[in-house]
Amino acid sequence: MNLFDVYPLWNIEPVKGSGCTIWDKDGKEYLDLYGGHAVISIGHSHPTYTKMVSEQAGKLGFYSNAVQNPLQRQLAKELGEICGYPEYNLFLCNSGAEANENAMKVASFHTGRKKILALKKAFHGRTSGAVEATDNPKIQAEFNRNGNIVFIPINDLDAAARQLRTKEFAAIIIEGIQGVAGIYTPHADYLRGVRELCDETGTVLILDEIQSGYGRSGKFFAHQHSGVKADIVSMAKGIANGFPVGAIIISPEIKAEYGMLGTTFGGNHLACAAALAVLEVIRKENLVENAAVMGDYFMAGLQKYVGEGKPVKELRGKGLMIGIEVNPGYEDLRNRLLFEKSIFTGGAGKTIIRLLPPLCVGKQEAERFFRAMDELV
Questions:
Q1: What pLDDT does residue 217 have?
Q2: What is the DSSP track for 282-336?
Q3: Are strands 321-326 and 352-355 parallel, antiparallel or unpaired?
Q4: Helices and strands (DSSP H and E) totals, the chain
Q5: Which residues have CB under 8 Å from 47's CB, separation 6+?
Q6: What is the mean pLDDT of the chain?
Q7: Rg from Cα positions in the chain
Q8: pTM of the model
Q9: CA distance 148 to 86
């Protein structure tokens, strides 16, 4: 049997990691400013993470959600405290797409409405409902096109008002920062205006923090830069440093009913141990604060490359979620960083490089990146 060939793969096989460094099977060292697509939040093979996950695996890795699991309650308490939503309720699943799927489902249950309002260039996942809310017809099968989603431009409050005031929409779903699109941030005034419209029309505000959450923006959730509070927040990538965990936190005004949601693997003992380890490291090592400081450091260091006749057209982002849009002639910069300088970065199309490093990244790693840029451009 062969693998279903849906991924274009680099000919690199990582076998070991530590902090912001990974090594391939031949012993070659790479600087990781990609974090496995923003998943590695606390760094590779962190000793606290390794210890807590290993110890839990030696006790009990899994039992179903038909029994008590105190680790889930501990995770809900600690996550609520650190993220600023202590009164909300937690539902655990396995991935970001599942988190968004469940968020939209809860909104529909709560309002009795069918439609969802989403933003152009949005990416919310690849499962059935999440991919319909993703503005990319190339990854939607006919099965996914049910006519339940309406797309509007980001930061266009008038467009949001026209749609939401019809009172046909169960929810509006907005990424804290649009990642796959190329790092586009909803303005603070826009989010505040949408919050008011949701209150006016009885619409659920879902903020998708799957890529932009867990400290990456320099606050625990990117939408917290605007002071807005969501009705539902979806999260995944950084939760468990690579262990598959997704989650939504839900306003106490939205009531649960038995059977409304369910999952076999979500919130299992091993998953909770991994997620608790991440929260412990984030707290003890002040990684949210480090993301803010190092985000500013990267942005300041990148300024010299921006401008006409220079490699970079525009910089975008917050904290350690940075988009570098390159000028014509520099479309190969990401591949050159990887294959000539051994630095992993993310991409968005051919012209945007995304920096999504582990939140423990420091000035030493940043300077290595700047030296590589100097030598390449």
A1: 98
A2: HHHTTHHHHHHHHHHHHHHHHGGGBSTTSSEEEEEEETTEEEEEEPTT-TTHHHH
A3: antiparallel
A4: 11, 15
A5: none
A6: 97
A7: 21
A8: 0.97
A9: 32
